[in-house]
Every structure is written in C-alpha cells, then in structure tokens.
Amino acid sequence: MGGRKTIGTRTKQLASMALCVLMLSSYLPSAAAASAPAEAANDDLQGHWAENEFRDWNGKGLIKGFEDGTYRPDQVVTRAQFAKLVNGLFGFTARSADAVAFNDIAADVWYYEPVSAAKQAGYINGFPDGSFKPGAPVTRQEAAKMTASLFHLQAAAGDTLSGFKDGSSVSAFAKGAMSSIVAGGYLKGFADGTVRPAQPMTRAEAVVLLDRLAGEVLNQGGKVDGLSAKGNLMITAKDVSLSDSSVEGNLLLTAGIGEGDAHLDDVTVKGTTYVNGGGAHSIHFNDSTIGDLVVNKPDSPVRIVFTSSDHAGTLQVETNAIIEFESGSSALEVVIGPNATGTSITVKGTITKLTVGASGVTVNGQPVPVGSTLTVVNGQVTVQQGGGSTGTTGTTGTTGTNSGLGKDMYDPGTIPGENPGSNPGENPGSNPGENPGGNPGENPGGNPGENPGGNPGENPGGNPGENPGGNPGENPGGNPGENPGGNTGENPG
To answer: What's the burial of 124, exposed, middle or buried (CB within 10 Å: 0-12/13-18/19+)?
Structure first.
C-alpha cells in the first residue's frame, strides 16, 4: 500500500511540474517571434516617402532588401546597379559581346551580365574614353538619358528646363531626355527651384522614376481581368492573358516575353502598343481596339494575330514579322519598313492602306514589290501603286495582270491571271512592267503616340542619391578603380 501511494504521489508531482513548464513557456517568446521585432526594427521603409513604390517593387521581385532586413532607400545607386534595375523591369537578358569593349568591364565581375544586357538592349553607350564607369553613381541626367528612349517619350514642346535655376547646366547629351522626362512629370525639381541634373540618385529615387514611367507591370504569367491602367502598362512575362481592360497610356510587350505568348481579349489601348517580345505563336488580340502599333523584335519573327472585331490604327512593322488579320478585323494603315525583310501578311479582313518598303514581303501568299501600295477589303487586294499595269475584265471573268499584281481586285491566295474569263485575250494589259512602283522604300519613321502622358505616382521631393542593387552581393562597396566620381559632362547614355 505504501509503495502505491509513493508512486501516485510522484506521478502527481511530475504532472504538476509539466503543467508549470507548459504555462511558463506560453509567456516566453519563440525564436521566430523574437526575430520579427528585430526585422521590424531594421525596416527602414516605414514612413519613407518612397515606401509604397519600394514595397510594390519588392513584392514583384524587382528589387531586393539586404540580409539585415534593411532596404537602404537613401543609398546611392551606381550605373551598373541602375542597369540591373532596368534590365529586371524589361526582362532584358540577351547579352552583347560588345560589353567587353568597355575598357573597365571584365568578364569575371558581377556587373558584366547586366552591363552586357544593357548594351545589347541599346540604352547605354559608355563614355568617349571607352569606359562605362560601372561603380560611379548614376546621375539624374544619366538616368533620364537611359530611360527616355526605352519608354518612347516624345520630345517636349518648348524649353521645359528653362523654368529651373540650373536648367542650363544640363549636359548636351541629356537635354532632350531630361526635357521629356521633366515635361511628363516623371522627374521633378526641388523646392529651391533646381533640377540638379548632375546629382547622384538614390535607390528610392531610381525606383520611383522607373515606377512612374512603367505604370502597371505584369511580370508573372496568368490571367488578369478588369485592369484599368491610368498610365502605361508593361507585360514583361510570357503566358499573360489580359481581358476586359483599358490602358490610358502605352502598352509595352517587352523582351521579357521571350518566344512566349500573350493574349489580349476586349482590351482598349489609347496610346501606342510596342511589340518587342513574342514568338511564332504569339501575340493575340481579340475584340480589342489598340490604336497604333509598332513591331520591333530583331532576333526572330513575332506572329501577331488580329481576330474578329479587332480595330487598329497604324501598324509600323520595323522588323520581320508574321501578321494575320482574320475576317472582321481591320487596320487604317500598315507600313512595312525597310528592315522588315521577309514579312508575311495574311488578310481576310480590311487594311485601308498597306505600304511595302522592304523586299521579300508577301500578302496573302503573293510577293509584293518594294514601293507597292495596296488596299485590302474583306481579303480582296487592290494595288494602288506599283506592280505593273492592269488588265481589263474578260467576257465571263476578270483578266489577270501581265506582271504579278494589278490595280484591280484579285482573290488573295490565287495567282493573278489564273481565271482570265472565257475571252482572256481582250486587252490583257498594256506595256506590262511599266510603273513598277514609285517611291520605293517608304518608311514613315517616327513612333506615333509615344509619350503616354499620365503621371503615375507622386515624388514628394526626392532624396538625392539612390542604389537599386538591393542584393549586398551586387558590388555594395564599389570598386575604387571604377572612377566613382564620373564626369557627367561626358556622354554616358
């Protein structure tokens, strides 16, 4: 009996001790809970003027924080780090062998790849002495020069820099870009009336500038419905499906799409659509109104399909492309530029005016000479200029032309002259081959509707100096041999 009581007593004592330990542990913070206040204490974005933009970019993976939990928004950003930020936004990854031409860029440094990709993308040139100065702080005017052309900003009307006390100090290489950036409200002046073109940018200023220029950014594949973009919209990843949406500014389908697809269903774009990415299957518009469109994808052709009820303004085809207009779709004008050799156009819809300025172009499977101007109505092609003289109508059919395309309508996809009628010999075409096409190689140039307007976001002043790197492995200390001072009067753009 006594032994049993002892065992029972000990069991109760152990249970009581376990209960005490459990209760005590509930009052002690866990390791994870303890680390949260530490991270929060290091969160240097709270209350910062660029907090919203910074957190949005961090959430999209466009900029990173540091291992200690800080973001360092007021840290100066270098030229190499700014290039890395821009590349990440657009999805630039193709590298240029010309990067090794910079005398201060070695193949074994972290910034070789971003500088090489920036060179390939065409928005950097370096300095007259052959250097790039990767470790030098990027200045406000350098950032403007690098980004203005990427976002297709129009030239500012008038001298927008004259209203600043130091407007005349903007370097010649950056005057146009700074004028456009400032006129669009993307870069603001300071309370003292200056614009400080040679002042280094901070990480916060760089993010806010790019955020304003970009507008909405879709950098992950998936479906997006009901988006209303007040400024620009960038699609920078493959397999994005956008529907029932509107874009007040420009739509940029960037190199980040690669050879992938993008689908736009019931989308209205008031600005210009720029197609710089996509492959052989690729950019599909359905029941959309897109304004003007510019195709420029140098490495390989991109296929663009307009389905029923699509309406477009002017299409400028600057590189080889495959363009299809299905029945019911239309465009006011299509201009095939001189560098768009081999472009293929299939039309079952309507093109009011089609101008061919490149060789090897086909329309509905038929070769079209350089300098030709066509009209297509419901798939029926009429030659307005070029391609030879026309035949007349035969007894029971339409005669063919003597040289390829004629001025009268023909059934696209057939060889002109195949169905000459029962009496095909009647005036089949006088002096064939004359007037082979006036004004060969027309190229309207220009990017209509570029400046998307809009001023997405506000910059409450700007804290001089930026650093977009975010990743402490991205040359956080700078290389003292990289001339961090820089000479902003040299053309760094």
So the answer is: buried
With DSSP H G I counted as helix, E B as strand and the rest as coil, what are the percentages for the chain, rounded to 5?
25, 20, 55
Q: Is the pLDDT of residue 328 over 90?
A: yes
Q: How far apart are CA 476 and CA 457, in angstroms?
A: 28
Q: Which residue has the tokens 């290389």?
A: 479
DSSP designation for 152 = T
Where does 260-367 have alpha helices with state H? none
Residues 6+ apart with CB under 8 A from 296: 274, 275, 276, 318, 319
Could you tell me which of 95, 81, 173, 96 has the C-alpha nearest to residue 128?
A: 173
Q: What pLDDT does 13 receive?
A: 58
To 5 degrees, how large is the angle CA 451–CA 217–CA 211?
60
CB 111 within 8 A of CB 82: no
Q: What is the pLDDT of residue 9?
A: 54
- Model confidence at 132: pLDDT above 50: yes
Cβ 452 vs Cβ 148: under 8 Å: no
pTM above 0.85, yes or no: no
Q: What percent of the chain has pLDDT over 90?
A: 64
The predicted-structure confidence for 38-59, as pLDDT tens digits, reads as follows 455 578 999 999 999 999 999 9
3-state secondary structure of 434: coil
With cut-offs at 50, 70 and 90, classify the pLDDT of residue 330: very high
470-479: b or e for each residue (b if 16 or more CB lie within 10 Å)?
Answer: bbeebbeebe
Give the residues across from 213 on adjacent strands.
none
Q: How many CB atoms lie within 10 A of CB 47?
A: 7
DSSP state of 5: H
DSSP secondary structure letter of residue 203: H
Give the angle subtended at the CA of 146 by the CAs of 145 and 147, to the nearest 5°: 95
Q: What is the rounded average pLDDT for all residues in the chain? A: 79
Question: pLDDT tens digits for 331-340?
Answer: 999 999 999 9
**Interior CA angle at 21 toward 15 and 26, to 5°?**
130
Q: What angle do CA 178, 193, 187 make, to 5 degrees?
A: 30
Q: What is the pLDDT of residue 416?
A: 41
Given a cut of 70, is residue 173 above it in pLDDT? yes
* Residue 288, C-beta contacts closer than 8 angstroms, at least 6 positions apart: 264, 265, 266, 267, 268, 269, 310, 311
